[in-house]
Write a structure and sequence with these properties.
424 residues, Beta-lactamase, five-stranded antiparallel beta sheet, three-stranded antiparallel beta sheet, 14 strands
Length: 424
């Protein structure tokens, strides 16, 4: 397989879970990319050949073969990153990790450390599958919405009830799509719906019935409920199940062939396990860590996506390219810049779907706006600095063996500072 970061893509395939959450069905796509694409984009795009599901762990090429060649200064950055990741493993922050620094052109430095699990297991490499957790909100939800805004299907300042009229209750008629993306809708942060509901529609019904806690636009509360609701809007706007909309509008056109929901058992040997979950009574491997997403069948707009570092490099390059990657345009530069800009710094640090640097969050102490990024609960993060033509990706499973494990915050900051502190 040729390299995948400056580089030739593979095919997109999507995993969707049965309602039981235990039965996995693999939907392998073949055909032509569809969706509502404006004529100015490079759509439709034929799907390339799929990556074999039984590809062995460690089968990725060596950096010099698969990733862009790096000058000597970037090798020094790679050594720095490796030192930070080795220390994270030594300090029991996470069993394994990969960090990548790249530009629009591709990878400039990368490093790995550790293994997939604390028990005997394969070493982390560029094709390890990670549970992205809330990075799902960026890769799947925000980017799909960006394509829909760009082609005029969605307008951010229309009420949510335009698309979901059954979402009723006090003040809900005042909530817009923009409010959901900026986490200022008034919805609560989280509810343990998985304790009382199982199945996509059952969980969504609980979300729709949840009242606002405060009036819209009076408080920023990072809300999984808002993301779940916006996923329903995407389905109504595209006429497709959420996972299929993501495949057609983002994963396929971006050549992200190793990004999927519900990885099948054939991929589990190169998937990083997450928590020894007392609720499920087992080590969570190959299924989403987030309990609500699990109860929804593994495919949700707030969590559930799995990806490799190779694919996430393509995602970072897509946003640094302001919606265009390897000649394929998903959305316009104007849309990219609008989504990445902080909405109101006196209110919160949020951009549309994204977060922005504050000097104290996981973006580190050095980078400033117009940089933007996000984190995921499992220990993932991505920060993008267009002013430096640079992104930094960190993928870990810090919730292994328990989510109470601490220490990922300082690691994120050190990795970001290493990435943004020097010149390529």
């Amino acid at each position: 397989m040729a390299g995948r970061d400056g580089f030739r893509g593979g095919g997109a395939h999507l995993m969707r879970a049965a309602v039981t959450g235990l039965a996995l069905a693999l939907a392998v796509s073949a055909g032509i990319m569809g969706g509502c694409a404006a004529s100015r984009r490079a759509f439709p795009v034929p799907l390339p050949a799929p990556v074999p599901a039984d590809a062995a762990p460690g089968a990725a090429e060596e950096p010099g073969d698969a990733w862009d060649a790096r000058p000597s200064a970037d090798r020094a950055l790679g050594d720095t990153l490796r030192g930070l990741l080795v220390a994270a493993r030594r300090d029991s922050v996470t069993p394994g990790a990969i960090a990548v620094v790249g530009s629009r052109a591709g990878v400039r430095a990368w490093a790995t450390a550790g293994t997939l699990d604390w028990d005997a297991s394969p070493a982390v490499d560029a094709r390890t599958l990670w549970d992205l957790a809330s990075l799902t909100k960026l890769v799947a939800l925000t980017t799909t919405v960006a394509t829909l805004v760009d082609d005029g299907t969605l307008v951010l300042d229309v009420p949510v009830q335009r698309w979901v009229p059954e979402w009723t209750g006090p003040m809900k008629d005042q909530v817009t799509l923009r409010d959901l993306l900026l986490h200022r809708s008034g919805l609560p942060a989280h509810r343990n719906f998985y304790l009382e509901a199982r199945g996509l529609e059952a969980v969504r019904a609980r979300v729709l019935a949840t009242p606002l806690e405060v009036p819209p636009r009076t408080r920023m509360v990072y809300s999984d409920l808002g993301a779940i609701l916006l996923g329903l809007v995407v389905e109504r706007a595209t006429g497709l199940a959420f996972g299929e909309a993501v495949r057609r509008r983002v994963l396929g056109p971006a050549g992200m062939s190793e990004t999927l929901f519900n990885p099948p058992p054939a991929l589990w040997r190169r998937t990083a396990p997450t928590e020894r979950d007392p609720w499920r009574g087992r080590l969570v491997l190959g299924e989403v860590h987030d309990e609500n997403a699990f109860a929804m069948g593994g495919v949700s707009s707030h969590a559930g996506l799995f990806a490799t570092a190779r694919d996430m490099v393509r995602f970072g390059r897509l946003w640094l390219g302001e919606g265009t990657l390897d000649g394929v345009r998903l959305f316009s530069p104007e849309t990219a810049r609008a989504f990445a800009a902080v909405a109101d710094s006196t209110f919160s640090s949020r951009a549309i779907g994204w977060d922005t640097p504050t000097g104290t969050n996981s973006a580190g102490t050095l980078v400033r706006r117009p940089a933007y990024g996000h984190t995921g609960f499992t220990g993932t993060s991505l920060w993008i600095a267009p002013q430096q033509d640079r992104f930094v990706l960190l993928l870990t499973n810090r919730v292994n063996p328990r989510r109470e494990r601490s220490g990922i915050g300082p690691v994120r900051i050190r990795v970001a500072d290493a990435a943004f502190g020097g010149n390529f």
